[in-house]
Design goal:
The protein is an all-alpha fold. It is 59% helix and 3% strand. The protein has a two-stranded antiparallel ribbon. Helix 2 runs antiparallel to helix 3 and helix 2 packs parallel to helix 4. The longest helix is centred in the middle third of the chain and has 23 residues. The chain is globular and about 55 Å long.
Length: 207
């Protein structure tokens, strides 16, 4: 990532700013991307590196280090305006700090069960989204409201030739006829050219 950032700043490869990308208050704004494609990807990469660093060095971290990571979280949001990643980074820091300081929580089962439940809820919701995705006038009003909060991620599953990533297009081994892009993460794992079998095996091994 550092190499890509340096190349973009030098004008050799990629863009420094993700100009004009975004919806609502972000529309037309200049959001930092440093050569990694878009500002969302940059924020996610920084979150991944932060999480890895906390995992590796949490036993040596002092209060000032946690504070600096908090400043980093705010700085990433200010530079990229990526609200979801900001919430994820903040939640990661809070949970990591609590687990690092509380052996009772760290050794208990509640937080781990909660994490698995959150993954399960996300997967089930994505299944429903892939099933219900359609034009706004054909979806329930409450789904439309959620879709607007998610900046169109539910409706975009459908809004392509051949129905995009809707549930009826999911194949056991993928299908080259469904390669259109949409931005609903779990649905992308199991539709289009992605192999349902490979990801199902991965999920079973993970749990």
């Amino acid at each position: 990532m550092a190499v890509l950032a340096a190349l973009s700043l030098a004008g050799v490869l990629g863009e420094v700013w993700d100009a004009g990308a975004g919806y609502g208050i972000k529309e037309g704004s200049r959001r930092l991307c440093l050569g990694v494609g878009n500002s969302n990807a940059l924020a996610i990469m920084i979150w991944a590196l932060m999480t890895l660093g906390v995992y590796l060095f949490h036993e040596k971290m002092k209060p000032v280090h946690w504070m600096l990571l908090g400043v980093l979280t705010v700085g990433v949001y200010a530079a990229t305006m990526t609200r979801t990643t900001f919430l994820v980074m903040a939640a990661t820091l809070v949970l990591a700090f609590v687990m690092d300081k509380s052996s009772k929580i760290r050794e208990g089962s509640l937080v781990y069960i909660g994490g698995m439940a959150a993954v399960a809820v996300g997967f089930v919701f994505s299944l429903y989204a892939a099933h219900i995705s359609n034009w706004y006038e054909l979806m329930p009003a409450w789904v439309v409201r959620i879709d607007r909060i998610l900046t169109g991620r539910i409706s975009s599953i459908y809004a392509f030739e051949n129905g995009g990533g809707v549930l009826r297009n999911w194949k056991l081994f993928g299908d080259p006829n469904y390669v259109e892009y949409f931005d609903m993460g779990y649905v992308r794992l199991f539709s289009g050219m992605e192999s349902f079998r490979a990801h199902a095996v991965w999920c079973c091994c993970f749990f």
